[in-house]
Amino acid sequence: FTKEDEDSFAVFATYCGLALDHARLYEKIHKSEEKYKVALEVLSYHNTCTNDELITIKSLPLDSMPDETDPAFSPYTLSNDEKVLSSVKLIQSFSGVTKCEVDDIYRFTLTVRKNYRKVPYHNWTHGYSVAQTIYRFTRDCPGFTPMEKFSFFVSGLCHDLDHRGTNN
User: Fold this and answer.
1) Which sequence spans correspond to the domains of the chain?
2) For the segment 121-163, what is each residue's pLDDT rounded down to a tens digit?
3) Is 159 assigned a ligand-binding role in the annotation?
4) Is 22 among the residues known to form the active site?
5) Residue 46 labelled as part of a binding site
6) Which residues bind Zn(2+) 1 per the record (predicted)?
Protein backbone atom coordinates (compact mmCIF):
# COMPACT_ATOMS: atom_id res chain seq x y z
CA PHE A 1 0.00 0.00 0.00
CA THR A 2 1.19 3.49 -0.74
CA LYS A 3 1.03 6.44 1.63
CA GLU A 4 -1.89 7.78 -0.44
CA ASP A 5 -3.77 4.45 0.00
CA GLU A 6 -3.25 4.60 3.77
CA ASP A 7 -4.48 8.21 3.93
CA SER A 8 -7.55 7.36 1.82
CA PHE A 9 -8.34 4.40 4.08
CA ALA A 10 -7.92 6.55 7.21
CA VAL A 11 -10.42 9.10 5.82
CA PHE A 12 -12.77 6.26 4.81
CA ALA A 13 -12.50 4.71 8.30
CA THR A 14 -13.24 8.08 9.92
CA TYR A 15 -16.40 8.53 7.84
CA CYS A 16 -17.47 4.93 8.51
CA GLY A 17 -16.99 5.53 12.24
CA LEU A 18 -19.06 8.72 12.07
CA ALA A 19 -21.80 6.93 10.10
CA LEU A 20 -21.92 4.11 12.65
CA ASP A 21 -21.98 6.61 15.53
CA HIS A 22 -24.83 8.55 13.88
CA ALA A 23 -26.77 5.31 13.29
CA ARG A 24 -26.34 4.35 16.95
CA LEU A 25 -27.41 7.84 18.05
CA TYR A 26 -30.43 7.74 15.71
CA GLU A 27 -31.48 4.36 17.12
CA LYS A 28 -31.15 5.71 20.66
CA ILE A 29 -33.30 8.75 19.80
CA HIS A 30 -35.87 6.52 18.08
CA LYS A 31 -36.11 4.25 21.15
CA SER A 32 -36.46 7.30 23.37
CA GLU A 33 -39.32 8.61 21.21
CA GLU A 34 -41.05 5.21 21.34
CA LYS A 35 -40.74 5.12 25.15
CA TYR A 36 -42.20 8.63 25.28
CA LYS A 37 -45.17 7.55 23.13
CA VAL A 38 -45.81 4.54 25.38
CA ALA A 39 -45.57 6.70 28.50
CA LEU A 40 -48.11 9.14 27.08
CA GLU A 41 -50.43 6.30 26.13
CA VAL A 42 -50.15 4.74 29.58
CA LEU A 43 -50.86 8.08 31.25
CA SER A 44 -53.88 8.62 29.04
CA TYR A 45 -55.42 5.40 30.39
CA HIS A 46 -54.56 6.00 34.01
CA ASN A 47 -57.50 8.12 34.96
CA THR A 48 -59.69 8.16 37.99
CA CYS A 49 -63.44 8.18 37.77
CA THR A 50 -65.29 11.47 37.63
CA ASN A 51 -67.93 12.69 40.06
CA ASP A 52 -70.55 12.31 37.32
CA GLU A 53 -69.63 8.64 36.87
CA LEU A 54 -69.86 8.13 40.63
CA ILE A 55 -73.29 9.77 40.83
CA THR A 56 -74.56 7.76 37.85
CA ILE A 57 -73.42 4.40 39.21
CA LYS A 58 -74.70 5.13 42.72
CA SER A 59 -78.15 5.85 41.31
CA LEU A 60 -78.43 2.22 40.19
CA PRO A 61 -79.96 -0.27 42.66
CA LEU A 62 -77.29 -2.36 44.39
CA ASP A 63 -79.73 -4.84 45.91
CA SER A 64 -81.09 -6.09 42.58
CA MET A 65 -77.86 -7.88 41.66
CA PRO A 66 -77.98 -11.66 41.04
CA ASP A 67 -76.38 -14.15 43.40
CA GLU A 68 -72.71 -14.21 42.37
CA THR A 69 -72.12 -17.37 44.40
CA ASP A 70 -74.58 -19.43 42.35
CA PRO A 71 -72.63 -21.97 40.25
CA ALA A 72 -74.84 -21.10 37.27
CA PHE A 73 -73.93 -17.39 37.52
CA SER A 74 -72.21 -15.99 34.43
CA PRO A 75 -70.43 -12.62 34.46
CA TYR A 76 -71.29 -12.27 30.77
CA THR A 77 -74.94 -11.69 31.65
CA LEU A 78 -74.07 -8.42 33.42
CA SER A 79 -73.54 -5.01 31.84
CA ASN A 80 -70.34 -3.11 32.63
CA ASP A 81 -72.19 -1.01 35.21
CA GLU A 82 -73.66 -4.12 36.82
CA LYS A 83 -70.16 -5.59 37.11
CA VAL A 84 -69.15 -2.46 39.04
CA LEU A 85 -72.18 -2.83 41.32
CA SER A 86 -71.47 -6.51 41.82
CA SER A 87 -67.84 -5.76 42.67
CA VAL A 88 -68.91 -3.14 45.21
CA LYS A 89 -71.36 -5.61 46.73
CA LEU A 90 -68.68 -8.32 46.96
CA ILE A 91 -66.11 -5.93 48.44
CA GLN A 92 -68.62 -4.87 51.07
CA SER A 93 -69.21 -8.53 51.96
CA PHE A 94 -65.70 -8.84 53.41
CA SER A 95 -66.82 -8.05 56.95
CA GLY A 96 -64.35 -6.17 59.10
CA VAL A 97 -61.88 -5.75 56.26
CA THR A 98 -63.18 -2.83 54.27
CA LYS A 99 -63.20 0.17 56.54
CA CYS A 100 -63.44 2.45 53.53
CA GLU A 101 -66.21 4.86 52.82
CA VAL A 102 -68.76 3.45 50.38
CA ASP A 103 -67.92 6.23 47.89
CA ASP A 104 -64.26 5.16 47.99
CA ILE A 105 -65.22 1.59 47.12
CA TYR A 106 -67.31 2.85 44.20
CA ARG A 107 -64.49 5.17 43.05
CA PHE A 108 -61.93 2.37 43.28
CA THR A 109 -64.05 -0.04 41.26
CA LEU A 110 -64.97 2.58 38.65
CA THR A 111 -61.31 3.56 38.31
CA VAL A 112 -60.31 -0.08 37.85
CA ARG A 113 -62.95 -0.46 35.13
CA LYS A 114 -61.83 2.75 33.45
CA ASN A 115 -58.21 1.62 33.30
CA TYR A 116 -58.92 -1.67 31.58
CA ARG A 117 -58.42 -1.37 27.84
CA LYS A 118 -61.03 -2.35 25.27
CA VAL A 119 -59.17 -5.40 23.97
CA PRO A 120 -60.73 -8.75 23.02
CA TYR A 121 -59.73 -10.71 26.12
CA HIS A 122 -57.76 -8.98 28.89
CA ASN A 123 -60.53 -6.47 29.51
CA TRP A 124 -62.87 -5.37 32.33
CA THR A 125 -65.15 -8.41 31.91
CA HIS A 126 -62.17 -10.75 32.26
CA GLY A 127 -60.90 -8.92 35.37
CA TYR A 128 -64.34 -9.04 36.98
CA SER A 129 -64.79 -12.71 36.02
CA VAL A 130 -61.48 -13.68 37.66
CA ALA A 131 -62.31 -11.70 40.81
CA GLN A 132 -65.80 -13.19 41.06
CA THR A 133 -64.40 -16.71 40.60
CA ILE A 134 -61.81 -16.10 43.30
CA TYR A 135 -64.62 -14.86 45.55
CA ARG A 136 -66.63 -18.03 44.96
CA PHE A 137 -63.67 -20.33 45.62
CA THR A 138 -62.43 -18.58 48.76
CA ARG A 139 -65.73 -17.47 50.31
CA ASP A 140 -66.26 -20.58 52.44
CA CYS A 141 -62.62 -21.63 52.63
CA PRO A 142 -61.47 -21.69 56.26
CA GLY A 143 -57.78 -21.64 55.31
CA PHE A 144 -57.70 -17.93 54.53
CA THR A 145 -58.28 -14.88 56.71
CA PRO A 146 -60.87 -12.31 55.59
CA MET A 147 -58.01 -9.94 54.69
CA GLU A 148 -56.39 -12.59 52.48
CA LYS A 149 -59.70 -13.27 50.75
CA PHE A 150 -60.17 -9.54 50.20
CA SER A 151 -56.61 -9.27 48.82
CA PHE A 152 -57.23 -12.17 46.45
CA PHE A 153 -60.42 -10.52 45.21
CA VAL A 154 -58.76 -7.14 44.58
CA SER A 155 -55.81 -8.88 42.90
CA GLY A 156 -58.18 -10.74 40.60
CA LEU A 157 -60.04 -7.54 39.78
CA CYS A 158 -56.84 -5.69 38.89
CA HIS A 159 -54.62 -8.44 37.52
CA ASP A 160 -54.74 -7.41 33.83
CA LEU A 161 -55.14 -3.68 34.35
CA ASP A 162 -53.82 -1.72 31.34
CA HIS A 163 -53.06 -4.94 29.44
CA ARG A 164 -52.54 -4.00 25.80
CA GLY A 165 -53.76 -7.37 24.58
CA THR A 166 -50.80 -7.79 22.25
CA ASN A 167 -49.55 -10.98 23.95
CA ASN A 168 -50.45 -13.33 26.76
Assistant:
1) 1-47, 51-158
2) 999 999 999 999 999 999 888 889 888 999 999 999 999 988 8
3) yes
4) no
5) no
6) 126, 159-160
